[in-house]
Amino acid sequence: MARIRSIKPEFWSSEQIMECSPTSRLLFIGLWNFCDDAGNHVASAKTIKAEIFPGDDISSTDVQRMLDELSSNSLIAFYANGDKQYLHVTGWKKHQKIDRPTFKHPAYSNDDRRDLDESSPPEGKGEEGRGEEGKGKKSPPNPPADAEGKKPVRSKREKISFTAFADACRESGERAIRADDPIFEFAEDAGIPKEFIALAWREFAIRHRESAKEQKDWRAHFRDAVRRNWLRLWWCPEGGGCELTTAGVQVKRERDAERERERLEQQAQQDQAA
């Protein structure tokens, strides 16, 4: 059931809000009416389109882009509970005062958060810093399959930094993203070229290599980044196909330039040896 919510005058001059497009701002306000009293809602673009833009020429794809924009500005956070996806309005407790609240959706938890980058917490979120404890500690990556194809059972997977995950993969001789990873099946179904997935992994690794952020499963975190296109490296025209965005072209050019430098260095070393 939709609810009456409060909107403060300072909303319009908030830097986070001003970074969003006007339509995304309207969507954000609309979300407040349909979130439960904890600021949670199902992360379904189709449902949200039907609730907030029922009579407008706005597609669910447009709504998903707006949700991604809100998430990139730390106004909402995506999270999972079981096999369902939800979103949480990050400044909810600060801006909405509710007597006798009722809750429809599973509670939001930072441990279930599914967005790409938590390095800039939203205003008023009140999230405690993670500090340096545990930074750089090494723990085995996702365990490789045994001879029968069954993964060893682990009682509890600890959170580790991306650097620790990458180091553990190198030490075990295991690829960070295996050739049979489900992300490639998703990419094939979505029409996303494998080369774009490689570019996404490169950018994903660069963004997290120096971060103290920790995850239980970095592979799953990367899959979410690709599925939701958090990195904004490509876009999919309605007529079909998949093309690089300006950001994607820049990443590709940077990668190609690095490869060319490496080729020239190898050639120079071979010439010296000869």
What does the radius of gyration come to? 21 Å
The percentage helix is 40-55%
| Share in β-strands | 5-15%
What value does the average pLDDT take? 77
Descriptive keywords:
single chain; 274 residues; mainly alpha; three-stranded antiparallel beta sheet; two-stranded antiparallel ribbon; 10 helices
What can be said about this structure in brief?
By secondary structure, the chain is mainly α. The chain has helices at residues 15-18, 22-34, 45-52, 60-72, 92-95, 162-172, 182-190, 194-209, 218-227, 246-273; strands spanning 40-42, 76-81, 84-89, 160-161, 214-215, 234-235, 243-244. The radius of gyration is 21 Å and the shape is elongated.
Describe the fold and architecture.
By secondary structure, the chain is mainly alpha-helical. The protein is built from 10 helices and 7 strands. The strands form 3 sheets. A 3-stranded antiparallel β-sheet has the order 1-3-2, covered by helices on one side. Strand 2 and strand 3 form a beta hairpin. The longest helix is centred in the last third of the chain and has 28 residues, at 246-273.
Give the topology, please.
Blueprint: H1 15-18, H2 22-34, E1 40-42, H3 45-52, H4 60-72, E2 76-81, E3 84-89, H5 92-95, E4 160-161, H6 162-172, H7 182-190, H8 194-209, E5 214-215, H9 218-227, E6 234-235, E7 243-244, H10 246-273
